[in-house]
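Trying the structure run again after the queue cleared.
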Amino acid sequence: MREMLRLALPLVISTLSWTVMHFTDRVFLNWYSRDAMAAAMPAGALSFAVVCFPLGVAAYVNAFVSQYYGAGRHKRIGLVVWQGVWLGLLAMPFALATVPVANAMFQGIGHSPVIAGYEIELYSTITWGAGAMVAAEAMSAFFTGRGRVRTVMIVDVLAALVNVLLDYALIFGNWGFPAWGAAGAGAATAVAMWFKAIVYLTLFLRKQHREEFGTLTGCRFDGALFRRLLRFGAPSGAQLLCDVGAFTTILLIVGKLGELDLAATSLAFNLNALAFMPVYGIGIATTTAVGHRLGQNRPRLAERATWSAFTLAAIYMTLTSSLYVLAPQSLLWMHAIKADPTEFAALSGLTIILLRYVAIYNVFDAMVVVFSSAIKGAGDTRFVLLTTLCMSPLPVIATLVGVEWFGLGLYWSWISITTWLCVLGVIYMLRFRQGKWRTMRVIEAPVIGEMDYVDDREPDAFETEPALSSDS
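Done. Tokens:
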């Protein structure tokens, strides 16, 4: 448990910084216009859905780095990170090519013209950061996969701060900047993504990293390793694409119910991020710990690390669920500032009801994150993909049929989401307990002379941050 706390806590702070960033972003947009805040969630979800396949593959670099590091094969680490960076650069033109299509979709989906206009503004600007997001994810895996998680925490907090400051400047036109409104929020996020990628690249190419991990000599395309990354990472990316696609589609369907329903759903998901994103950080720590231990051929320690991670996640989710049920107004007061009192009264009343659904599925969501992260860290990505392909369409179909054919409305949409996440959590927990992941590995067998570093001390704990100063 101490090991997982040392590994997970900086990652929780890292992901929480981005949660606070998005939370503040929505607050600023709500001050600017309730319709702009309502548009932020569909536009943001769609922009993430477009890039989440390469992002999921790039995030899977973490499993490679942790297993290479555990096996003592340091020279392979720089090379595999660069394969993720190339993927990010390839994703950039693809993401930008979707802007005209997305604009036409927002105009034709049935949202009000005002909300559709804000959605187009946000999507058209935020997409410029897509390539940087993927490249930064791959480079952050260089640090998380080796347990240097405080470095990631510092970089992410700085990037989130840049985003928040630019939000305040570009949405309202403060400090001499132009007042771009909703487009300013998207531009702020794009700039913050590029800032994050540049900082990671600077740290990645430091002298000690070039010498030990080949971060400069590995700056080339390696077809065999790139295909291996796709072989294991593509199912992970497809899982992310299907899950985010399901949420995005449901949001678009909810948007047809009315502006209030969409605004309340967006606000509830925004508050849900306060619970989900820190647990996502615990999931990254789980992938790292499992990969490291399997690289050492110590699956029992990988299992213990996973159960410790789930204990942490379940405790946190229980506390946040209690807050959603017992004191939801404490989370809404910032949104009320500068908002129209009559409009916000209706919005907050509906949002409080939706937060009860979040409280129901929170612990099951922790199961999804932790146990899927564990089996993906081992290489059991095909099961994750098959589960996603079978399960992700169900809440979309249920919501569409319920809303369009039977007129069941907003609450039915949330019942569909809640049921989906609860079932997914149980499925991933059972798969983990089955234990097939114990014999899996994502890295290839070493060739003679490739073991450039061997640590035969058999430590009892994953050594996180033995020398933070060398990375920071």
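The longest helix spans residues 341-378. Worth checking whether this holds up in the mutant runs.
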